[in-house]
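Deliverable D5.2: sample structural annotation.
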Amino acid sequence: MKKENYLSSFFYFSFYLLFFFPLLFLSLQKVFPAEKDDPVLPLSVLQILNNEISGELAQDYIRDIARYHRLQPSRGYSQAAQWVAEKAKSFGLTEVQIEKYPADGQTFYFMYPSSPAWDVEMAELWITKPREEKLTSFAEIPVSVAINSRSCDVEAELVFVGEGTSPLDYEKVEVKGKVVLASGPMDSVANLAVDRFGALGVVTINMRFADDEPDNVSTLRLRTKTPAFGFGLSHRRGEALKARLLRGEKIFVRAIVKAEISPYYYENVIATIPGTELKDEEILLTAHLCHYKPGANDNASGSACLLEIGRTLRRLIDEKKINPPKRTIRFLWVPEMSGSIAWVARHPEEIRRAVAGINLDMVGQYLNQNNSTFFLHLTPHSRPHFINDLLINLVEFLAAHNMHAFGTPSIFPVYSLSGSRDSFRYRIMPYSGGSDQVIFNDGLIGVPFAFFLVWPDRYYHTSGDQPERCDPTQLKRSALLAAAATLFLSDDCPHKACRLAGEMVTRSRIRLTEELKRGFNLLNSSETKDLALNYKEAINFIDQAIKREAASLESLKNYSRHDKEVDHFLSISIDKLKKEKAVWLSELDQFYRLTCQSRGIKPEKISLSPEEMAASKIIPKRHPELKGPVNLAYLREKIKNQPEAFNLPIFQEDSRITYEILNFVNGQNSLLDIRQAVSAEFKPIPLSWVKDYLELLARAGIVIF
């Protein structure tokens, strides 16, 4: 072939590949859709939700909620609760009410003490000499006033003490009768400056994101034995003030605070969309309404999404675009943690009716602007449930059609008109604490609760957490995911049950493979002397995973009352899963023997130690009247004569470990069972740690042996 013909043929072949191959690729995608193109809800239903849910409306709700300083409890929170209740009524939600619970410092809700209200009427900090200048005020920056500051009107010299967190910072500075400026945390500074050295009050410089956000002020809380006041300044303003003092300038400040600490109430806003055939079963949607002003993303965003979900579902039901829910949908706007535990204490019957729930906390951030990610946190291992696979399916489907991927057309774009076009970055994560799902997932409360979160948040707990920081697109996506899952959970549909059953059986195999890989990795990374011990741990990984997957499948039974064939399929799948345990363990055993051979050692026979045998016969129980996770303040008070108890090594570990240890105390699990479950969930921990911790809880009356 001549060179010219060769080049010509190559050109046409290249053109063919460039032009026709993408078309072929796209056509094949339509014939063979990706797995993530198959949501558990019909695409038509998801599109109806997509057409109605509005990120702009959610952002409008945020603007209204953010007008209030919503500390729990407080008059500002009451105003916000009243606004939310009126809005919920205007959307047609039913049984809308504001429930009140005493918050006086004396009333307990199980292990949780209530706290009185701190309400501030006005607070200002001024420079009076050498010239008058306002430094900050509650009216302009509410978070600049430390919570629990006491009423005062004082004028005194301002002195700089460095970080102010060490007695050494005060050796060469007289602070008695003066006001301290420091760069350390408010609590640490105040405990020394006020309680120990006699300062009248504290002013701190915000050090968070000093370079990126120099004008933000972080939230502050004062915990002093002596009545005092505290103010926070932005990094820019604080550093300028510090520089003046370091140059030798004598500065006097005047602090004016009008505030009150008094008994008040926690307040929950409650609303429902009543169910029909299964109205006594309930789906819970929660968001905490509390926090400082503005507190837009944290957590006016979650509260706003709940309102938008309620408005959307009610309208679509009334317009007959979707069917009324079979199960009741209950919305709860609460003071974080305290409102949830108080509601549980007052409504034990409704807790028994709850099927599952979703908590929305900080769900509105722009992803790209903040290098943030949407996190779906699953239920803990102590609470296996089908809600996890339901939400994973929906999140993966949303992500598959809302990212900028070459050659992947979107059949389900979710954007708000005025929102971003950010790709939907997400991660599926294990259980996490830090919000109201902690209360509901507790072993004695027992409601499987998932958790939505966007993180990191550069404006977290600062004056910069403004409504405009929230992305209408991300608000819409968060609300849509929760609304879609709620429609599934509140239904009674054989087709949906069958669809999710197949999804769960498939995913269970994937997760078991991951546990096998985890076991292989543990053996590979083991010191030779620890090989047999870690093989034993790897066996436990498989054993616990089988139990967990079987329990998750079991939870889907009776989802549909109209098709027992699904339940039969689930029973067969559970039996098969348990029978396959021997196959998984055989693979692990073969790898263990191979590892031993490669290291020139003889495989050891695995058996229970005497300590484990003894632990297998000890079955702790929980005190039935002490529901909820362990409150450390309650625990410290109960064992105040034994402060050394808090030196237990387990207190140096992830707090989720102690949370789950208590959750696995169910009157059936032995000490050994609990240790095995927690070790598979997090990392292998000594049996003695579990025993010592539960014995500590027994001394406090939380656990009974």
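Annotation notes: Residues 494-524 form the longest helix (31 residues). DSSP finds 22 helices and 19 strands in the chain.
The annotation will be released with the project's public dataset once the embargo ends.
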